[in-house]
Amino acid sequence: MRLRLKIWRQESNEITGRMESYELKEVNEEMSFLEMLDVLNEQLMQQGIRPVEFDHDCREGICGQCGVMINGEPHGPLQNTTTCQLHMRTFRDGEEIYIEPFRALAFPVKCDLKIDRSAFDRIIQSGGFISVDTGQAPEANSTRIPVPVAESAFDSAACIGCGACVAACKNTSAALFTSAKITHLAKLPQGKTEAQERVLHMVAQMDAEGFGHCTNTEACEAACPQEISVLNIARMNWEFNKAHIMRK
Amino acid sequence: MTQSTLTRKIWMALTGLFLCFFLIIHLLGNLQLLIPGPASKEQFNAYSQLLSGNIIIKIIAYILYASIIAHVVYAIIITVMNTRTRNVKYHYDKRGNLSKWYTRNMGVLGTIIFIFLVIHFRDFWYVYKFGELPLDEHGHKDLYTLVITVYSELWYVVIYVICMIALCYHLIHGFFSAARTLGLYHPKYVRWIRILGWVYSVGICAGFAFIPVYVHFLK
Ligand code: HEM
Ligand code: SF4
Ligand code: FES
Fold first, then answer.
1. Are residues B90 and A100, on separate chains, in Cβ contact within 8 Å?
2. I need a surface site. Which of A50, B52, B116, B157 has the fewest CB within 10 A?
3. Within chain B, what is the greatest distance between any pair of CA atoms?
4. Counting ligands in written order, which one lies closest to the CA of residue B16?
5. How would DSSP label each residue in B42-53?
6. DSSP readout, B63-114?
7. What's the rounded Cα separation, in Å, for the pair B172 and B203?
8. Distance between CA atoms of residues A167 and B26, nearest Å
9. Rounded CA separation A220/A236 (Å)
10. Looking at the CA of B72, which ligand is closest?
11. A203·B97 Cβ contact <8 A
12. Is residue B85 within 8 angstroms of chain A, CB to CB?
């Protein structure tokens, strides 16, 4: 299949970028989206043009590195799929495809489609952990967690930190990402002890990074490759309100 | 104290919910305009007089003014701060597919409601409190005749109905959104609140919109 690509090119954060057009004449439908970009880059290198930089690591939908805006939607038109798991059979022959980096002041563009997601790391560092004593492993049955609770905590823990929720949100809110971690730990007995500080610190960090106010449009859930539920945001709000009222 | 994104949302939710509660009382009062015959006028004017003298109603009125102001101020703060979180627009933007239009346009819907409120306060509230209203045969200020006169203008009725449609969409999202902001996370009750929000919003707005239409065409 043939494709016309419009790709955001930006050499570095200091230089303003622009959209550039490229043509690919022979794309296999079975290629993944990133493989299609690999083919483009080979073609560009042969022509002496700087290849398009994009982030990727696992290429199997678990690392959360590859997210880009494809035809105006995070990770492209296929629901609940990362960019690396998107295949060219989703597109039509001769289609024009717009590829842009996720846009947020909190996610500065590093180069072309690569963005700096370290704002997410700092949110996790501010409270997305549990403190445990080192030493011998505790007796396995000393903390009992019913399977449904473990499963539901795992649903929240499934977030891969890709940033699609932020990119999809008209308010650039990181509520879905932040709430997924808060909820994951709030559901488990190990997370209870630090629940209060966790939610207060993580929300404060989320704000400090410059993300917007969540207005519950729920676009994040629709864009999320991991189907993280917006009920996580409700749980975060609950934990936050509780912590706010109870704190000394 | 510096506020967080979530505390600002809590104030939006609390003031919004108070306005929702007020709308119920307001609608129940207005329904007296539908009573057939002269009893309607007598009862509506007496009711208006009763409200303006009551201390509890006075307190509620002040909470109401404060709520409207706080709700609008926070709406502006939140909306402005949110627009400052992204400085480059997407060249090709299909994110509209991901959410409902009215959830993304609460500010626009709110502005329509705000313009309506200004007109509404000027026409009725201001005239009743500070204007010269003739008295009816029972010695009550004749708000009834004023309302009927205003509603006899077709353009006014049309604007009124359009504003109620805007209010309806604002409430459908607002009611549910407020429950989420306050932290309702149990899936079953979230479903119930969504349904309750629909019933409430459509009920309130259809009720308010019906009154001027009825008065215009049938009184
Ligand atoms: C009778 C009048 C009104 C009622 C009953 C009402 C109700 C509500 C409720 C319940 C919310 C949800 C709060 C939340 O998301 O937590 C809300 C949000 C909002 N309202 Fe109002 N409102 C009214 C008037 C207005 C006016 C006059 C404006 C603007 C000038 C406005 C602008 C907004 C905005 C921007 C939001 C934020 C949307 C969001 O966070 O999802 N509202 N309103
Ligand atoms: S919540 Fe979903 S969209 Fe957001 S970062 Fe996690 S996986 Fe990506
Ligand atoms: S490359 Fe790891 S999720 Fe796509």
1. yes
2. A50
3. 67
4. 1
5. HHHHHHHHHHHH
6. HHHHHHHHHHHHHHHHHHHHHTT--S--SS--GGGGS-HHHH-HHHHHHHHH
7. 11
8. 41
9. 15
10. 1
11. no
12. yes
**Residues A190-225: tens digit of each pLDDT:** 999 999 999 999 999 999 999 999 999 999 999 999
Task: Give B203 or A139, the one with higher predicted confidence.
Answer: B203
Domain locations in chain A?
3-110, 118-130+145-246
CATH for the stretch A118-130+145-246? 1.10.1060.10
> Six-digit token pair at B198?
């629909």
User: Measured from the CB, is residue A32 less than 6 Å from ligand 3?
Assistant: no
Whether residue B9 lies within 8 A of chain A, CB to CB, comes out as: yes
What integer pLDDT is reported at residue A248 of this predicted model? 77
A179 CB contacts (<8 Å, ≥6 apart)? Answer: A232, A233, A235, A236, A237
Domains A3-110 and A118-130+145-246 share a fold: no
Q: Taking the CA of residue A33 as centre, how many other CA atoms within 13 Å lie in the half-sphere pointing to its CB?
A: 28
Report how many domains make up chain B.
1
The interface predicted TM-score of the complex, written ipTM, equals 0.93
Q: Which of the ligands is closest to the CA of residue B68?
A: 1
Strand A96-100 and strand A73-74: pairing? unpaired
B176, closest residue in chain A (CA to CA): A216
The minimum CA-CA distance between A170 and chain B, rounded to whole Å, is 7
User: What is the spatial distance between Cα B153 and Cα B156, in angstroms, rounded to a whole number?
Assistant: 5
Rounded CA gap, A151 and A50, in Å?
A: 46
**Which of B64, B170, B208 is the best mutation target for the ligand 1 pocket, counting ligand atoms within 8 Å of the beta carbon and taking the most?**
B170
Nearest-CA residue of chain A relative to B105?
A217
Predicted structure pTM score:
0.94
The structure tokens listed for B17 are 């919910």
Residue A82: how many other CB atoms lie within 10 Å: 29
CA distance B168 to B104: 15
Cβ contacts of B106 on chain A, cutoff 8 Å: 215
User: Does B81 touch chain A if contact means CB atoms closer than 8 Å?
Assistant: yes
Sole residue written with tokens 């104030």: B11
The CATH number of residue B142's host domain is 1.20.1300.10
Establish whether residue A177 lines the binding site of ligand 2, counting it when its CB lies within 6 angstroms of any ligand atom.
yes
| A3-110 classified as CATH 3.40.50.720 | no
| Interface contacts A/B by beta carbons within 8 Å | 128
Find the domain containing B51 and state its range.
Answer: 2-218
Confidence band for B1, pLDDT divided at 50, 70 and 90:
very low
